UniProtKB/TrEMBL annotation:
Subcellular location: Nucleus
MF-aspect GO terms: 3'-5'-DNA exonuclease activity; 4 iron, 4 sulfur cluster binding; DNA binding; DNA-directed DNA polymerase activity; nucleotide binding; zinc ion binding
Catalytic function, reaction form: DNA(n) + a 2'-deoxyribonucleoside 5'-triphosphate = DNA(n+1) + diphosphate
Native source species: Podila minutissima
UniProtKB keywords: 4Fe-4S, DNA-directed DNA polymerase, Iron, Iron-sulfur, Metal-binding, Nucleotidyltransferase, Nucleus, Transferase, Zinc, Zinc-finger
All residue ranges annotated as the C4-type zinc-finger of DNA polymerase delta domain in the record: 131-202
EC number(s) on file: 2.7.7.7
UniProt-recorded name of the protein: Trafficking protein particle complex subunit 2-like protein
Length: 360
């Protein structure tokens, strides 16, 4: 992506002809005035695919927005305007008139285009979940694999887990490289340099991790995740909740009553607690490690309140318990908010309680 970025200074807004960077700055201002480029800033942009006859200034877009939404790049624009002439100058002395055949022909007809998530017909598209094995549309109640591929579920789960692991290693290496660049391995990376190839690689891998983790979560279908600690990214708790489900399955084997499973595992600054109902609904709570010891009785009370809120929500006759959809009830949100804030007040500012409910 960094090799395709064009950067121009926003020196004025009243050009005689429309300019790509000026039009983009105006669109970014409409999206978020706080983060939009101001007069005197340099505007980085790439050219994206557009309809036939659309001017280049209408196809300019913020590189980060393109990465986050899988918007396809206008490869023909870059080939015709930035690559063709230098390539022809290099190969003409060798190939003569045949040099132009490098840029046209059968070998140029196969291209890969990512599916955008915004704009065009995508606003009218209906997403359908497909089986991770055979890609057939899933029926109601199926979250990861169809009935025919159920026997392959462990294999598909391990395959997806390996993908997530590889992406996490890649992200860690890129993150460390950015930390070394800023001169500290113990602070958050604040760099937003849109001229750096590592910056875009890091953002791209971060997006891929989120997508891959979402796919992985289909095996343990999260129904609700709440983060009470804004200093920790949601993705961190998302991953912890998913990892905890495997530990809970091991501990809860051969038992059929409501269970408080205690501390599942601990990290440097976090402790993870688990609770499972007799219908195999899992509740996971992550606490930042405080200076005082947290009693099991207190945690049991927290889980009972979360369980009660869940039961009250599912008792609604209009709620489809087999829908596999995330819980978006305002009343349920308020009850979880009250539980989390109450726990935070008891333990001071040191505690955060992001509960996660997972389907069976």
């Amino acid at each position: 992506m960094a090799q395709l970025v064009i950067t121009k200074a926003l020196s004025k807004t009243d050009y005689a002809n429309k300019q790509a960077h000026v039009e983009l700055a105006e669109r970014m201002k409409q999206r978020d005035a706080g983060s939009a480029p101001a007069l005197g800033d340099r505007v980085a942009y790439v050219i994206i695919k557009g309809g036939k006859g659309v001017a280049a200034y209408d196809k300019s877009e913020d590189p980060l927005y393109v990465l986050e939404n899988n918007i396809p790049i206008d490869t023909k624009y870059y080939l015709d305007n930035q690559l063709s002439k230098p390539l022809l100058r290099i190969f003409e002395p060798i190939l003569g008139d045949k040099a132009e055949s490098l840029l046209a022909g059968d070998h140029t007809r196969t291209i890969q285009v990512s599916t955008p998530s915004v704009g065009g017909l995508m606003r009218f598209a209906v997403r359908t979940a497909t089986c991770l094995g055979c890609k057939t549309p899933l029926k109601k109640g199926e979250s990861a694999v169809c009935a025919n591929c159920k026997g392959r579920a462990p294999e598909l789960y391990q395959k997806q887990q390996n993908i997530v692991n590889d992406l996490e290693v890649r992200f860690s290496r890129l993150w460390t490289q950015c930390q070394r660049c800023q001169g500290s391995l113990h602070q958050e990376v604040l760099c937003t340099s849109k001229d750096c190839p590592i910056f875009y690689m890091r953002k791209k891998v971060q997006k891929e991790i989120q997508d891959s983790t979402t796919t992985l979560d289909r095996f343990n279908n999260p129904l609700y995740i709440k983060n009470f600690n804004p200093s920790h990214p949601d993705l961190k708790y998302h991953y912890i909740a998913h990892t905890s489900c495997d530990v809970m399955e091991e501990r809860a084997a051969m038992k059929a009553q409501d269970m408080y499973l205690g501390v599942l595992f601990s990290m440097e600054d976090l402790s993870v607690y688990g609770y499972m109902t007799n219908t195999k609904v899992k509740f996971i709570t992550v606490l930042t490690v405080p200076d005082v010891i947290i009693k099991d009785l207190d945690m049991k009370n927290v889980f009972r309140r979360i369980h009660t809120a869940y039961v009250n929500h599912t008792s609604n006759p209009f709620y489809d318990i087999d829908s596999q959809k995330m819980i978006k009830s305002k009343k349920f949100e308020q009850e979880i908010e009250a539980i989390g804030r109450g726990r935070a007040l008891e333990g001071g500012n040191r505690s955060s309680v992001p509960p996660a409910a997972h389907g069976p």
